[in-house]
Amino acid sequence: MVTIKSKQEIEKMKEACKIAALAQKAIEEAIKPGVSTWELDKIAENTMRKYGAIPAEKGYPSGEKGVPDFPGSICASVNDEVIHGIPSKRVILKEGDIISIDLVAYKDGFNGDCARTYSVGNIDKKSQKLIEVTKQAFFEGIKYAKKGNRIGDISHAIGEFVEKNGFNVVKEFQGHGIGRQMHEDPGIPNYGRAGRGIRLEPGMTLAIEPMVMAGSDEILVLDDGWTIVTEDEERAAHYENTILITENEPEILTKI
Ligand code: MG
User: How many angstroms does the Cα of residue 16 sit away from the middle of ligand 1?
Assistant: First the structure.
């Protein structure tokens, strides 16, 4: 079900989203060679708790038999890991890596969701382009995140921009509505046809999240049941914000 948020609910969404953005900022400042993804997890969790939120990803059910609930406060996906990487003391960042951090802050009944891909020190040119195209794909998408447009308009803009730049979007995962639940309707694919899908209305809050791979669009799931990697071991990037549909331009809520 697609939920339309009231004024009061939107205020609560804004608060959760602001805290998610603050946690991203704390992580960005901490990223450097030698840091483990476990340390980044603690930084994110501490930041969220400092502002009265909790990390919503921790304990998120896998929905699959034999796969434990998600153990981290963040998803930390390095290089060829696309999404859902599990933070670990054994994963130490090194110069030239890229790392995608996806996190959700939950406060007062509402969720704020955002993802960024960061460079660790100096990175190669292709990785730099991958990060930039992924981020720009989000902004190409939200040009269409306006009252009266359809979800497919956003999806199409994202997919077309990514492919024009020689990369591929992930087809198996998508953006989503967000609010009291981390994942609400509608689903928002990162590819598709313009003019399709539900119409956008003021009060909708959406997590729009291009996931982009430098190589082929084939993915695999690691044995941990969570981590999604590229099959060809090329790198991947992720960029996400929670936005609000308004009477006019969309508002990005996960920013500070
Ligand atoms: Mg997310």
Answer: 13
Query: Which CATH number goes with the domain that contains 116?
Result: 3.90.230.10
Domain carrying residue 133: 7-252
Measure 104 CA to ligand 1 centroid, in angstroms.
6
Q: Is residue 86 part of a domain?
A: yes
β-partners of residue 115 are 102, 240
CA of 124 to the centre of ligand 1 (A): 26
Considering its fold, how many domains does the chain have in total?
A: 1
Residue 66 has pLDDT above 90, yes or no: yes
Per-residue confidence at 231, pLDDT binned at 50, 70, 90? very high
- Other CB atoms within a 10 A radius of the CB of residue 171 amount to 15
Task: Quote the longest CA-to-CA distance of the chain.
Answer: 48
Q: Phi/psi of residue 54, each to 5°?
A: -125, 155
pLDDT band at 142 (very low <50, low <70, confident <90, very high): very high
CA of 240 from ligand 1 middle (Å) equals 6
* Structure tokens given for 192: 């598709």
114 C-alpha to center of ligand 1: Å? Answer: 5
β-strands 81-83, 228-230 pairing: antiparallel
Ligand 1 mean position, distance from CA 226 (Å) = 14
Nearest 5°: the CA angle 236, 238, 240 is 170
